[in-house]
Amino acid sequence: MATLHVRNIPDKLYEELKSRAKAEGRSLSTEVLYILKRALRRPYRSQKDLLKSIQRRQRFTPAKAGTPSSLELLREDRSR
């Protein structure tokens, strides 16, 4: 098995890791491995892909699609 050494960990982050490991009843190494495994289970999406996805969604907002916003609908309903 490979060994990974991480340097220059901010003190606050190190303390948070130690605290979480203790709360979960794990060693610090086991907790770090657990966190890494969970993070890597999610599909990787680059920042570029995420930005493209956000921009695509913004094109279909109700205001741009000609649909009144929920705020406009509420105001109209209350004024009746």
UniProtKB/TrEMBL annotation:
Signal peptide: none annotated. Residues 2-40 form the Antitoxin FitA-like ribbon-helix-helix domain. InterPro entries: Arc_rbn_hlx_hlx, FitA-like_RHH, Ribbon_hlx_hlx. It holds the Pfam family FitA-like_RHH. Residues 53-80 are annotated as: Disordered. It comes from the Bacteria. GO terms for biological process: regulation of DNA-templated transcription. This is Antitoxin FitA-like ribbon-helix-helix domain-containing protein.
